[in-house]
Amino acid sequence: MIHKTYKELLAGIRTFMFDVDGVFTDGQVLLHPGLDPVRTFHTRDAYAVQHALKEGLRIIVVSGGVSAGVAESFARLGVQEFHPSVANKNAVLDQLVAQGLDLASTAYLGDDIPDLRVMERVGLPCCPADAAEEVKAISRYVSRFPGGRGCVRDVLEQSMKVQDKWLTEQAHHW
Fold first, then answer.
1. What is the CATH T-level fold of the domain 6-139+148-166, as seen in this structure?
2. How confident is the model at residue 1 (pLDDT cuts 50, 70, 90)?
3. Domain ranges of the chain
Protein backbone atom coordinates (compact mmCIF):
# COMPACT_ATOMS: atom_id res chain seq x y z
CA MET A 1 0.00 0.00 0.00
CA ILE A 2 1.36 3.41 -0.99
CA HIS A 3 0.86 6.14 1.60
CA LYS A 4 0.55 9.73 0.49
CA THR A 5 2.62 12.42 2.17
CA TYR A 6 0.72 15.11 4.03
CA LYS A 7 1.59 17.55 1.21
CA GLU A 8 -0.08 15.22 -1.30
CA LEU A 9 -3.11 14.92 0.99
CA LEU A 10 -3.40 18.73 1.24
CA ALA A 11 -4.20 18.96 -2.46
CA GLY A 12 -7.49 17.11 -1.94
CA ILE A 13 -8.66 18.80 1.25
CA ARG A 14 -11.85 20.84 0.81
CA THR A 15 -13.07 21.00 4.42
CA PHE A 16 -11.10 22.10 7.47
CA MET A 17 -12.40 21.36 10.94
CA PHE A 18 -10.88 23.02 13.98
CA ASP A 19 -11.04 22.82 17.74
CA VAL A 20 -10.85 26.22 19.50
CA ASP A 21 -8.99 26.02 22.82
CA GLY A 22 -5.42 24.92 22.24
CA VAL A 23 -5.71 25.41 18.46
CA PHE A 24 -7.01 28.93 17.77
CA THR A 25 -5.94 29.87 21.31
CA ASP A 26 -2.93 28.93 23.39
CA GLY A 27 -5.25 27.05 25.73
CA GLN A 28 -5.14 29.65 28.46
CA VAL A 29 -8.20 31.58 29.59
CA LEU A 30 -8.38 34.69 31.72
CA LEU A 31 -11.06 34.13 34.35
CA HIS A 32 -12.86 37.00 36.01
CA PRO A 33 -16.06 36.70 38.09
CA GLY A 34 -19.18 37.57 36.14
CA LEU A 35 -17.47 37.67 32.74
CA ASP A 36 -17.00 35.17 29.92
CA PRO A 37 -13.52 33.65 29.93
CA VAL A 38 -11.20 35.82 27.84
CA ARG A 39 -9.25 34.14 25.02
CA THR A 40 -6.93 35.54 22.38
CA PHE A 41 -6.65 34.53 18.71
CA HIS A 42 -3.65 35.14 16.47
CA THR A 43 -4.50 37.61 13.69
CA ARG A 44 -2.66 35.47 11.12
CA ASP A 45 -4.95 32.55 11.92
CA ALA A 46 -7.96 34.84 11.52
CA TYR A 47 -6.66 36.17 8.21
CA ALA A 48 -6.13 32.66 6.83
CA VAL A 49 -9.64 31.57 7.83
CA GLN A 50 -11.40 34.46 6.09
CA HIS A 51 -9.19 34.03 3.01
CA ALA A 52 -9.89 30.27 2.85
CA LEU A 53 -13.63 30.95 3.00
CA LYS A 54 -13.37 33.47 0.15
CA GLU A 55 -11.55 30.83 -1.90
CA GLY A 56 -14.41 28.37 -1.43
CA LEU A 57 -12.97 26.14 1.27
CA ARG A 58 -15.31 24.94 4.01
CA ILE A 59 -14.43 25.86 7.59
CA ILE A 60 -16.10 24.08 10.51
CA VAL A 61 -15.30 24.93 14.13
CA VAL A 62 -16.22 22.50 16.91
CA SER A 63 -15.62 23.46 20.53
CA GLY A 64 -16.34 21.97 23.91
CA GLY A 65 -16.56 25.48 25.30
CA VAL A 66 -19.05 28.27 24.85
CA SER A 67 -18.36 31.98 24.69
CA ALA A 68 -20.27 34.83 23.10
CA GLY A 69 -16.97 36.49 22.22
CA VAL A 70 -15.66 33.41 20.43
CA ALA A 71 -18.92 32.98 18.49
CA GLU A 72 -18.90 36.65 17.50
CA SER A 73 -15.26 36.46 16.37
CA PHE A 74 -15.93 33.51 14.09
CA ALA A 75 -19.06 35.16 12.70
CA ARG A 76 -17.04 38.28 11.82
CA LEU A 77 -14.61 36.08 9.88
CA GLY A 78 -17.49 34.56 7.92
CA VAL A 79 -17.52 31.16 9.63
CA GLN A 80 -21.08 29.89 9.40
CA GLU A 81 -20.48 26.44 10.85
CA PHE A 82 -19.61 26.99 14.51
CA HIS A 83 -20.60 24.26 16.96
CA PRO A 84 -20.12 25.40 20.61
CA SER A 85 -20.68 23.41 23.81
CA VAL A 86 -20.01 20.08 22.11
CA ALA A 87 -19.53 17.25 24.60
CA ASN A 88 -19.04 14.60 21.89
CA LYS A 89 -17.23 15.87 18.79
CA ASN A 90 -17.54 12.47 17.12
CA ALA A 91 -21.36 12.79 17.24
CA VAL A 92 -21.11 16.15 15.44
CA LEU A 93 -18.91 14.50 12.82
CA ASP A 94 -21.54 11.76 12.39
CA GLN A 95 -24.18 14.45 11.74
CA LEU A 96 -21.95 16.18 9.20
CA VAL A 97 -21.25 12.90 7.41
CA ALA A 98 -25.00 12.20 7.29
CA GLN A 99 -25.36 15.61 5.61
CA GLY A 100 -22.76 14.69 2.98
CA LEU A 101 -19.37 15.57 4.46
CA ASP A 102 -16.62 13.59 2.71
CA LEU A 103 -14.17 12.39 5.37
CA ALA A 104 -11.35 11.76 2.87
CA SER A 105 -11.32 15.44 1.84
CA THR A 106 -11.50 16.72 5.43
CA ALA A 107 -8.65 17.88 7.66
CA TYR A 108 -9.07 18.24 11.42
CA LEU A 109 -6.75 20.30 13.61
CA GLY A 110 -7.03 19.31 17.26
CA ASP A 111 -4.83 19.35 20.31
CA ASP A 112 -6.19 17.08 23.03
CA ILE A 113 -7.96 13.83 23.94
CA PRO A 114 -11.52 14.98 23.03
CA ASP A 115 -10.28 15.42 19.43
CA LEU A 116 -8.84 11.92 18.99
CA ARG A 117 -11.89 10.03 17.69
CA VAL A 118 -12.63 12.66 15.07
CA MET A 119 -8.98 12.80 14.03
CA GLU A 120 -8.90 9.03 13.55
CA ARG A 121 -11.68 9.29 10.94
CA VAL A 122 -10.69 12.23 8.72
CA GLY A 123 -8.40 12.23 5.71
CA LEU A 124 -5.78 14.52 7.27
CA PRO A 125 -5.43 14.70 11.07
CA CYS A 126 -3.21 17.63 12.14
CA CYS A 127 -2.16 19.21 15.40
CA PRO A 128 -0.24 22.15 16.86
CA ALA A 129 3.35 21.72 18.06
CA ASP A 130 2.24 21.66 21.70
CA ALA A 131 -0.58 19.10 21.33
CA ALA A 132 -0.99 16.16 23.70
CA GLU A 133 1.34 13.28 22.88
CA GLU A 134 -1.60 10.99 22.02
CA VAL A 135 -2.75 13.51 19.43
CA LYS A 136 0.72 13.92 17.95
CA ALA A 137 0.97 10.14 17.62
CA ILE A 138 -1.99 9.94 15.21
CA SER A 139 -1.41 13.20 13.33
CA ARG A 140 -0.25 13.06 9.73
CA TYR A 141 1.03 16.61 10.18
CA VAL A 142 2.33 18.32 13.32
CA SER A 143 2.62 22.07 12.80
CA ARG A 144 5.82 23.74 13.92
CA PHE A 145 3.60 26.40 15.51
CA PRO A 146 1.89 25.94 18.89
CA GLY A 147 -1.80 26.54 19.51
CA GLY A 148 -2.76 30.21 19.37
CA ARG A 149 0.48 31.07 17.60
CA GLY A 150 -0.22 30.40 13.93
CA CYS A 151 -0.89 26.66 13.60
CA VAL A 152 -4.24 27.33 11.89
CA ARG A 153 -2.56 29.65 9.37
CA ASP A 154 0.18 27.07 8.83
CA VAL A 155 -2.23 24.29 7.81
CA LEU A 156 -4.50 26.53 5.72
CA GLU A 157 -1.62 28.30 3.98
CA GLN A 158 0.11 25.06 3.02
CA SER A 159 -3.09 23.60 1.63
CA MET A 160 -4.03 26.75 -0.24
CA LYS A 161 -0.55 27.00 -1.78
CA VAL A 162 -0.77 23.41 -3.03
CA GLN A 163 -4.23 24.21 -4.46
CA ASP A 164 -3.09 27.55 -6.03
CA LYS A 165 -5.49 29.49 -3.80
CA TRP A 166 -2.99 31.40 -1.66
CA LEU A 167 -1.74 34.48 -3.50
CA THR A 168 -4.92 35.19 -5.43
CA GLU A 169 -6.52 38.60 -5.84
CA GLN A 170 -8.67 37.78 -2.78
CA ALA A 171 -5.49 37.43 -0.71
CA HIS A 172 -4.93 41.18 -0.72
CA HIS A 173 -8.24 42.04 0.94
CA TRP A 174 -9.78 41.35 4.35
1. Rossmann fold (3.40.50)
2. low
3. 6-139+148-166
